[in-house]
């Protein structure tokens, strides 16, 4: 025994400590554990240094590649993360988790096609890989392919029927498909699975709102806000529901709450402006429309709506400018074309007005107001027959259009056909007995008939 100890000691002297040194794989794993410890403590750079040393010790250490990739991902260094996940996949092509991680990273790089390829590979390797279905569904949704996203949510729910997140996400796609009852059913199941999920209440609220069940929608948004008071979407959606209930002051308050959380929430500015307009707070509406344009100068509807405020304020030149900007962005916006025509009319530029009304009619041949307005412009130019034709067309589209009967009656009066003028004006009053222009016109016509 003493001889064995002596031989061992002699070998140690001759060969140093090599006999007791760690193998490269063991050294690498020790460094991986050290790196994991640094990462848990929040020192990602030291973690990366340890993972890199681990790979120097053992270039085939898949755990070092995966953990360093995780660390790079946490630093938003997605290119290096992809490179490390790719090295891990090269070492073990059957590792479904590596494909999934790389797929997630591609998604963060907005490269959804590559993400889907990797996530599909992960699912091929493990057909019951719930997380991979979740991630692929999100990638499909980011591409706007809701049908394929729906199929993946469906598959995920088949694996875990109590997966609340998949249920409320599938519910949202039911909502997009106008299948509101199915949306409500899925979101209700999601809430049963996890009553603390704000998004499930919000998505169910969207479906209730679409069904015009505004009180139920508001109740769900109330709960969503209670669970997540820092979500601007929750306040925004409740504001929309309150708008449909004509609760404009409460809607303004909710839009304001959404804007306070997200100061660049363009739709909240736009909708708050519209609610303010209904409340006749025109200066406030003007400010909000302008903010919305600052945030997104490519939205034709906002220019159009700000043009309406300028029209209300009788600033016809600015109104025309905004309608023109709207039309530059969307030449098919018939309402903007019609309103610009009205602004030209108020500036007594009837030729420009008629040109705009005509374009509006070309875009939307069923826009009765454009025919009516063109008829008024032609009346101003004393083109009474053309005006009568336009008012007649407006009436054909909307037989309850009292103002069109009044205007056509006035054209008949100018042509000397008092009987037809009386008939049209009388008919206008059968539609709207309190129509003061019709009352005044009928009184004048009867006076003229009596005098004749």
Looking at the structure, what is the overall shape?
elongated
Number of strands: 0
Main sheet overview: none
* Estimated share of beta-strand residues: under 5%
Q: How does CATH name the architecture of the domain at 366-452? A: Alpha Horseshoe
Element order: H for helix, E for strand? HHHHHHHHHHHHHHHHHHHHHHHHHH
- Terminal Cα span: 146 Å
Query: What's the pLDDT, averaged over the residues?
Result: 95
CATH class category label of the domain at 366-452? Mainly Alpha
Supply Rg: 35 Å
Percentage of residues in helical conformation? over 70%
The secondary-structure class comes to mainly alpha
Query: What is the CATH superfamily classification of the domain at 366-452?
Result: Tetratricopeptide repeat domain
Multimeric organization:
single chain
CATH level-3 fold name of the domain at 366-452? Serine Threonine Protein Phosphatase 5, Tetratricopeptide repeat
Number of helices: 26
């Amino acid at each position: 025994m003493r001889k064995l100890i002596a031989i061992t000691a002699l070998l140690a002297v001759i060969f140093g400590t090599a006999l007791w040194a760690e193998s490269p794989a063991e050294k690498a794993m020790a460094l991986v554990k050290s790196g994991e410890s640094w990462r848990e403590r929040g020192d990602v750079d030291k973690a990366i240094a340890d993972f890199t040393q681990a790979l120097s010790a053992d270039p085939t250490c898949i755990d070092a590649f995966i953990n360093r990739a995780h660390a790079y991902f946490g630093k938003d260094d997605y290119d290096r993360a992809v490179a490390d996940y790719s090295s891990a996949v090269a070492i073990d092509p059957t590792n479904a988790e590596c494909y999934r991680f790389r797929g997630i990273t591609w998604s963060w790089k907005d490269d959804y096609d590559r993400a889907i390829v990797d996530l599909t590979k992960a699912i091929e390797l493990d057909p019951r890989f719930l997380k991979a279905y979740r991630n692929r569904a999100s990638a499909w949704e980011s591409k706007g392919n809701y049908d394929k996203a729906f199929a993946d949510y469906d598959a995920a729910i088949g694996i875990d029927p109590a997966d609340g997140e998949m249920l409320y996400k599938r519910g949202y796609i039911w909502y997009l498909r106008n299948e509101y009852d199915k949306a409500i059913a899925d979101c209700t199941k999601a809430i049963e699975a996890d009553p603390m999920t704000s998004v499930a209440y919000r998505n169910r609220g969207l479906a209730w709102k679409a069904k015009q069940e505004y009180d139920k929608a508001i109740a769900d948004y109330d709960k969503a806000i209670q669970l997540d008071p820092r979500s601007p979407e929750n306040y925004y959606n409740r504001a929309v529901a309150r708008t449909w209930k004509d609760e404009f002051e409460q809607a303004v308050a909710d839009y304001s709450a959404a804007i306070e959380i997200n100061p660049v929430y363009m739709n909240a500015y736009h909708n708050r402006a519209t609610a303010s307009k209904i409340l006749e707070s025109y200066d406030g509406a003007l400010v909000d429309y302008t903010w919305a344009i600052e945030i997104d100068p490519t939205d034709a509807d906002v220019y159009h709506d700000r043009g309406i405020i300028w029209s209300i304020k009788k600033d016809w030149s600015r109104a025309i400018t905004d309608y023109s900007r709207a039309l530059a962005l969307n030449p098919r916006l018939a309402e903007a074309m019609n309103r610009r025509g009205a602004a030209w009319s108020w500036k007594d530029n009837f030729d420009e007005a008629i040109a705009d009304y005509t374009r509006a009619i070309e875009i939307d041949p069923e826009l009765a107001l454009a025919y009516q307005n063109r008829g008024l412009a032609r009346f101003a130019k004393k083109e009474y027959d053309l005006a009568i034709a336009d008012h007649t067309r407006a009436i054909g589209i909307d037989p309850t259009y009292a103002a069109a009967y009044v205007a056509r009656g006035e054209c008949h009066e100018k042509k000397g056909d008092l009987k037809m003028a009386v008939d049209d004006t009388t008919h206008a009053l059968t539609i709207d007995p309190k129509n003061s222009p019709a009352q005044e016109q009928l009184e004048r016509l009867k006076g003229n008939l009596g005098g004749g």
